[in-house]
Every structure is written in C-alpha cells, then in structure tokens.
Amino acid sequence: MADINQWGGIITKSVTRYPREGNPPPRIAETSSGMLNSIGLANLGVEKYCKEVIPFLNELQTQVIINIAGSAMEDYLETMEILESTNGKHVGYEINISCPNVKEGGIEFGVNCDMTEKLTKEIRKRTDKLLIMKLAPNVTRIEDIAKAAESGGTDAVSAINTVVGMAIDIKTRKPKLNTTFGGLSGPAIKPIALANVHKIFKAVKIPVIGIGGIATAEDVIEFILAGASLVQIGTMNYQNPNLGSQLKEKLSQYFPPNGTNTI
Q1: What is the extent of the structural domain holding 236?
Q2: N or C: at which end does the chain have fewer Cβ atoms within 10 angstroms?
Q3: Backbone angles phi, psi at 168, to 5 degrees
Q4: Per-residue pLDDT tens for 52-108?
C-alpha cells in the first residue's frame, strides 16, 4: 500500500449533496495509453461522508482537499456549508465544474464564464479555506473560464479534467461503456493537458495545478515548464500506487542543480 503521508497532499473523489449510486456497469474501459471511465460520481452523499469519511481524513498526516460536485448551484453551496460545519481538518476544496460523464454533473458551469464566476463568488463567501476550481477541457477557450474563476475569487485553478471519449467492442459491436461515452484520462491526454495549462498560465495571475497523464518525473517537469505550480496524479496510481513517492524522489535529484529549492 502507498504511504499517503509522504505525498504533498491528496484530493478526494467528488462528494455531492445527496448519495449517488453512479452509472451502471461497465463503467471503466482500458484504452491505448489511457482509461475511459463513466463512474457517474458515485459517492455516499455529504451527510454520510461527514460521519464516515471525514474522521479517516482527519487522521492523515498530509494536506487534504475535498472535491465537491453538483448539478445546481444549490447543491454545491449546501454541500460546502455542511462540510464547513464539521470538525474536518481539510485545508481546502476543489470544485468540480467539469465532469463530462454525468448528464447533470455540473458541466454547464464549466463551459459558461458568467456561471463559473457566479458560482465561484458564492462558494468564496462560504469558506476561508483554499479554493480551487477544476476546469473542463471541452470548451472553446479554457483561459476565459479560468479568468472568470479568478474574478470570482478562487485561489487557484486545476486543469484538465478528462476528455470525452468512446471505445467499441468489435466482437459485440457495442460501446465498451454502458453510457457509450466516458472520460478519457492517462498519458493519452498529456499533450492536450499541457496545452491547456500553458494557455491558462498566460491568462491568469493565480496558480495553475496541472492534471492529465502524468506518469514520470519528466512529465512533471513538462507541466512545471508549461506553467503549473503543482500537479496531480490520478490514473497512473491504479498501475502504481507508489508513483507519487517515487516521483518525489526522482524530482529531488533533478531540481537542485536547476535552481529549485522545494518539491
């Protein structure tokens, strides 16, 4: 098992206002250099989450950020208010306005500048903790959405979430996912992620957190050179749960000669 406490921090899977069973299986399919998923935001709901998950998170010796998703502004705000009323030791929130695999999963906020700014402002009123808005790649100008989130008061933005994709079983002649479409993640999307991170970096003054296909120390360095202040690792943890710790060690060998003091 991975020693989570060695990592700089963790961001949880999404929690919503009410419990969600998620999409029916099959909801994960392997692809070349990546993975398609259509989980459907399966989670306990925030009230049960506070009782069963928060105590576990409080025991971790690393920074914890809770991801929140919703289908309407009220869902986000009520979830936030309930989490804020607990004795959680988490340091912040990442707001998922970009999940492409659930019909009512918040995508309308992630593609609309006005709604992004409005939601960010309302959430900002409800917490003094670190606030990160997670952005969708399936937009015309992701930098405009980032600027809207910045105007709304977010501390940082993270990008990118998964890219809409599809896989077909040629034997059954049917999609490999029950929902037909899913979110593509893993190394296959790294070039897309790098381009979007760089676009955002040039458009805003707040930190950008890079996400998308990180598997090696070289990948991390690319994201940093593209403008990311931090990075997240997701899909490749399935293949190697110790990847975060291994990358930290490898990066410590790279950065000192190049003038960077902390990782």
Answers
A1: 4-23+40-162+189-258
A2: N
A3: -125, 135
A4: 999 999 999 999 999 999 988 899 999 999 999 999 999 999 999 975 434 445 567
Do residues 137 and 185 make contact, with C-beta atoms less than 8 angstroms apart?
Answer: no
99 is catalytic: yes
Asked if residues 144 and 111 have their Cβ atoms less than 8 Å apart, the reply is: no
Tell me if the bond preceding 26 is cis, omega within 30° of 0: yes
CATH number at residue 209: 3.20.20.70
Q: 3-state DSSP call for residue 190?
A: helix
Which member of 35, 36, 68, 99 is catalytic? 99
Residue 263 forms part of a structural domain: no
pTM over 0.90: yes
HEC per residue, 135-167: CCCCCCCHHHHHHHHHHHCCCEEEECCCEEEEC
Single-letter code of the amino acid located at 236: M
Q: CA-CA distance, 243 to 249, in Å (whole number)?
A: 10
Residue 167 domain-assigned? no
Q: End-to-end CA distance of the chain: give it in Å, rounded.
A: 22
Pairing state between β 181-185 and 34-37: antiparallel
Lowest mean pLDDT among 102-111, 119-128, 214-223, 236-245: 102-111
pLDDT of amino acid 98: 75
- Could you tell me which of 95, 91, 92 has the C-alpha nearest to residue 118? 95
